Amino acid sequence: MKTKPTARIEPLPAEHSPDLKDAFAAYVKALGFIPNSMLILQRKPKIVKAMALLTAAIWEPDGEVERAFKRLLAHVASRAAGCQYCMAHTAGGALLFGIDPKKVEAIWDFRTSPLYSEAERVALDFAIAAASQPNGVTDEHFAEMRKHWSETQIVEIAAVVAVFGFLNRWNDTMGTPLEEEPIEVGEKYLASHGWRVGKHAR
């Protein structure tokens, strides 16, 4: 009988770090649960607090790039990096922030799907190039971006990819156990494009 993989480092209960109550509450407000990535990372509380501040700035409602679209940017960046954990989380986040489920399902046909605008296609291509190793962004990418996005918006878009550079590597390295909600999203919307829970199963 095949046994389920165990976590490389187990998530700790939220009660382990009372001083992270506010940071964890922000995740519950945004996602509906505390991600296991942060429950593992709480062994270093200062990093959790720093990440909470950074991600709050990334997802700020007053940004010039829609928060829902930023989730799709994070999704394609996470796929470029190969992080199944973050792919499921970002697809779920896109749905939570109001992206049409059909648009989420069509994310890997974005270059031809009528559900995506030319500006979105250019930004998604930019995000994939930025998340690739070695970095694939060229002057041509920037020239195309400037046709559709302001410099402030380009900074916001690049910042999303950069933050997920940390999260992709963290969760892939730890094999972070994937929570029930994003597993359901992955199986429903992403499996047809090759998504698998893999090492993130519990």
Number of strands: 0
Q: In whole angstroms, how far apart are the ends? A: 15 Å
The biggest beta sheet reads: none
Tell me which CATH architecture of the largest domain applies here. Answer: Up-down Bundle
Q: What integer is the average pLDDT?
A: 95
Oligomer: single chain
Question: Beta-strand percentage?
Answer: under 5%
Give a nutshell description of this structure.
The protein has 202 residues and is mainly alpha-helical. Helix content is 61%, strand content 0%.
What does this structure look like?
61% of the residues lie in helices and 0% in strands. The protein is globular and about 50 Å long. The two termini are 15 Å apart. Helix 1 packs parallel to helix 3. With 202 residues, the protein is mainly alpha-helical. It folds into 2 domains: 43 residues, no CATH class; 136 residues, AhpD-like, CATH 1.20.1290. The longest helix is centred in the last third of the chain and has 24 residues.
